[in-house]
Amino acid sequence: MILKHIALASFAILSLSACQSTSQAQPTAIVNVPFTAPLASDFRSEIAIARYSELLNRADLAPDQQAKLFYDRGVLFDSLGMSTLARIDFNRAVQLKPDLAEVYNFLGIHHTLMQQFEKAYEFFDSALELNEQHEYAYLNRGIALYYGDRANLAAADLKEFLTRSPSDPYRVLWLYLAQASADPVQALANLKSNAQGLDDSQWAYSLISLYLGDMSEQSFLTSLADGVKTEQEYAQRLCEAYFYLAKIYQAKGLDYQAADFFRLALATNVHEFVEYKYARLELELMAGENDS
Fold first, then answer.
1. What Å distances lie between residue 119 and 112, 124, 162, 265, CA to CA?
2. What is the pLDDT of residues 184-216, one digit of tens each?
3. CA distance 195 to 225
4. Other residues' Cβ atoms within 10 Å of the Cβ of residue 232
5. Rounded to 5 degrees, what angle do the CA atoms 278, 274, 152 make?
6. Considering the entire predicted model, what is its pTM?
7. Collapsing DSSP states into helix, strand and coil, what is residue 34?
């Protein structure tokens, strides 16, 4: 059953048509999309942040304990979209305990988002040196390499990430995105091959069907509410859907439509999802291209 606040509606995004015989802008509806209210902050995270802050004021904490508290509080700040406060805590944690692999992973993500790619690579390398089984460091370094225009290296990391869980559609899709930036034809062939090992009963498989052309965009959008039990789950699903739709339009050279979908991903407020984080980076990169 679809929740009462969830609807499928026409979300009119206005664009300005080129001026020809008149200077008056004409609004044009670009996309019809499902939508829901932006995800609200989790009050439990805010309470936990307050509790960690109280504990950090104690003078009897060992450095290892302080580092763990700074890390835990940083993760909560990150989940609420408070990136500067998160980064401050992560830096404090790694100063107190330099062998926390997970902290380097988060710092790598933050430097990727700031387009400081060389610094990001260093942090991910450190995470993997400390723990070579840290599989999400492969994902995040692969994404950093992808945005840093190092497609072959990105594909190598994302392929390693996929080997850790070959049935995960998201891993298949990120590998495709990296490979497609170098060779779209071969990437599509690889996507078809990798899709054979996936469970098509998962909702995320519809993303693969969309990219393979086995599902229309309208059918994909209509199916987004299938099996959804909470508004939080729906917002998370929309965040993913908008981001990957944006990447399809971007690959076709339709940057205006892509930007609209990236903005819709941001409108969900699902701060902890990679799709939310990189939707913002995509828009910043687009803005930089337009300024150059």
1. 8, 9, 24, 27
2. 999 999 999 999 989 888 889 999 999 999 999
3. 23
4. 14
5. 70
6. 0.86
7. strand
